[in-house]
Amino acid sequence: MIFRNRVCNALMAAKVTPMMGMLAMKVRAYPPDKRKRDIDNIQKPLLDALEKGMAFYNDCQIKHLTTVMKDPVKYGKTIVTIRKINDRAPGISKTGC
């Protein structure tokens, strides 16, 4: 819950508006220390927090997801880049789902 609130607050401060359509997302995760971590445990809470914070309407819009675990940095950080995928298919909703 703390993580989700931090993500939502960051999105609100940046005045992010929800992206529409099909999206590609790149995640660069910098853990706070050298403890062993599973990369897949980063994805679900991050996608849910970004949806709750209205970076996009629904995480089913993410059609391409790249996650990279980087070297640790003090306090840790996560950098997310989201881009729209060109949609040539007719009849796709604003959520792309």
Structure report:
Helices cover 26% and strands 25% of the residues. The chain has 97 residues and is an alpha+beta fold. The chain has one domain: 2-Layer Sandwich (60s Ribosomal Protein L30, Chain: A), CATH 3.30.1330.70. Strands 2-1-3 form a 3-stranded mixed beta sheet, covered by helices on one side. Helix 1 packs across helix 2. The longest helix has 13 residues. The protein is globular. 18% of the residues are buried. The mean pLDDT is 91.
Strand content: 15-25%
- CATH H-level homologous superfamily name: Holliday junction resolvase RusA
Instruction: List unreliable stretches of 5+ residues.
Output: none
Oligomeric grouping of the chains: single chain
Count of the domains:
1
Shape: globular
Q: What structural class should be given to the helix and strand makeup? A: alpha+beta
Order of helices and strands: HEHEE
Compact overview of the structure:
This protein is of the alpha+beta class and 97 residues long.
Name the descriptors:
2 helices; alpha+beta; three-stranded mixed beta sheet; 25% strand; single chain; 97 residues; 60s Ribosomal Protein L30, Chain: A
List the helices and strands and how they pair.
Elements: H1 2-13, E1 23-30, H2 40-52, E2 62-69, E3 77-84
Parallel strand pairs: 1-2
Antiparallel strand pairs: 1-3
